[in-house]
Amino acid sequence: MRVLNSLWYIFPYFFLGHLVGDYMLQNGYIAARKSKDLKVLLLHILLIFISQLVFLLGAGFGAIQFFSVLLLSVFHFLIDFGKYKCKRSFCNSWWYYLLDQGFHILSFFAVMVPFSNVDFFLSHDLVVVLSVMVFNGYFVSILVHFITSDGIYKRDYLGYLFRMVAPVLYYVSTTVFFIYAAIMLLFVWRIVKHSKSKSVISSVIINYILTLSSSIILTGVML
């Protein structure tokens, strides 16, 4: 039980390193080319390695931990290489997207144990909040795009702001969070009422629900 508790405490550091590397450090060029060009995929893996390394540093970090991060990057490469080789439409679906991210998350647990005695430089609460912010800002946005649109994904920076602010407010005060949720619901209602696009309406509603749900569930579970 003690080991499980320790691994769960460590999890947000791996999660944040993955999210930053797989989303924030992945520009449009890498996202478009990594499934077609092996060199671009390797560049993506290098950025993943650097991101994981930065967030996992702390007192007690040594050679074993370094090679664990390296091994995690190899796992990431193997998972992404599967998509690199896959040319079916299935590999561009929202359920493959969830499956892909699920495999990445499972790979964390294969290398976590050596980090049980590492005293990470970043505070646990900060890492949890940052993780949910990036998750909401990027993961949710792309998932909703897969579900509601067949077009090219474009970053919605106003949407990023709405989604990324939510976990911060939840951490600071649940009362403020629910006031914010109520205010945002008014904006959602206006869009639903006036928009003639089913895709836009679906996107706004799903974004709203997933953002609030993940802010409450992920923040609550990881803290």
Structure write-up:
The protein is mainly alpha-helical. It folds into 2 domains: 1-121, no CATH class; 123-223. The protein has helices at residues 2-24, 28-33, 38-56, 63-85, 94-108, 124-148, 157-172, 174-194, 198-222; strands spanning 58-59, 119-120. It has a two-stranded antiparallel sheet with strand order 1-2. Helix 1 (2-24) crosses helix 6 (124-148). The chain is flat.
Question: What's the story with the biggest beta sheet?
Answer: 2 strands, antiparallel
The number of distinct helices, counting runs of at least 4 residues, comes to 9
Distance between the termini: 17 Å
The oligomerization state is: single chain
As a percent range, the share of strand residues is under 5%
Structural class: mainly alpha
Helix content: over 70%
Instruction: State Rg.
Output: 18 Å
Uncertain stretches: none
Q: Tell me the overall shape.
A: flat
The helix/strand series, from N terminus to C terminus, equals HHHEHHEHHHH
Number of strands: 2
Total tally of structural domains: 2
Topology:
Blueprint (H helix, E strand, L loop, with lengths): L1 H23 L3 H6 L4 H19 L1 E2 L3 H23 L8 H15 L10 E2 L3 H25 L8 H16 L1 H21 L3 H25 L1
Antiparallel strand pairs: 1-2
Helix pairs in contact: 1-3, 1-6, 3-4, 4-5, 6-7, 6-9, 7-8, 7-9, 8-9
